[in-house]
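sorry for the late reply, my laptop died twice this morning and i had to redo everyting from scratch. anyway the thing you sent over, i finally got around to it. pasting the sequence first so we're on the same page, its 399 residues, then the predicted structure underneath. double check i copied it right bc i was rushing
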Amino acid sequence: MPLSPRTALLWDLVQGILGTAAFLLDLGADLWMVGQYLLSGHYLWAALVLALLGFASAALQLFSWVWLRADPDGLHRSQPSGRCLALLHLLQLGYLYRCIQGLQQGLLVWQQEVPSAFDLAYSDFLSLDISMLRLFETFLESTPQLTLILAIVLQSGEVECYQVVGICTSFLAISWALLDYHRALRTCLPSKPLLGLGSSVIYFLWNLLLLWPRVLVVALFSALFPRYVALHFLGLWLVLLLWVWLQGTDFMPDSASEWLYRATVATILYFSWFNVAEGHTRGRATIHLVFLLSDSGLLVATWLTQSTWLPSGIPLQMLLYAGASSFLLGLCLRLVYYHWLHPSCHWEPDQVDGARGLFSLKSCQLPQNGRLTGLAQNFFSKPKDEMASLMKREVNGVF
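ok and here's the structure:
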């Protein structure tokens, strides 16, 4: 049975609290790892972790600042002045400020007996931006860092407590970010059902099972050929960046920031599928899957021609069997999801989460997050009349 409106709003608020806590926990685990590397004399490893943290944080603050500047005047009525916001982003606190702002708005909506349509729409607007930023942070920092930790463990043959914590939190953060982003896309289009509990579990699992082999492949290559992994990443990243550019993305408010978005998407595509163009995604997703499989196959062939054992003494065959099994199981779950649980299928959803499906926001004057709505239009197939209606939006994010 669907949840009551207040219970659904409370569940959204709890999810926001958990997401913010997970971000702080992941940051704390990263800093703990850096400290341990410094104490043990592994200065290069500590520098690499700090570099990933710094690069991802800088990109995240830039995205957040550009979006705030592009939002309509008067939308964020209670936010600080422009100089204060600029200082927060300069101090790398912009994303955390957004999380706190989203929690405050969610608490305000939940405390109302009958939430106003504007407050509900504004709460959605904030949460959608947070979901997108969380996804970017995941693939700019958590995923490369997970690959680095696995490479260090595989090369040394030893695993420390802080490394186990880092591996577990990174895997969960990546899968959760993908799930949260997909749920956010569904809330943008009223005609799409919300993601139910069973659908969420399947979506979470197939993303986790498909991501693990790719991360393992790159980590093994890094452990065996640490001097060439940067060259491998740069070569594939340039190809993927060209592919994204050829698809004609139009996500950011200006051409300069659009290249930042394309570069970020190319980084995501290095590890996982991410759709950015309008139309049916099956063909592009298949091309991307074949591309990554071919690249992974070349990496495996490179290992086998050099050695069948890792420097730590672990046989490669054992890890390859585990990765192949994970990939096949994840691919099966992905096919199950898109065949029976994808919103383009005609099924009766079990709306156990989210308040968006319980409140109808029909007024065209309400704030709508055009950034995520545009990506949702690209991701989901729609009738032509619905597409024409949704395309009538301004660049700044308001219908």
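The chain has one domain: 5-390.
thats about all i looked at so far, will dig more tmrw
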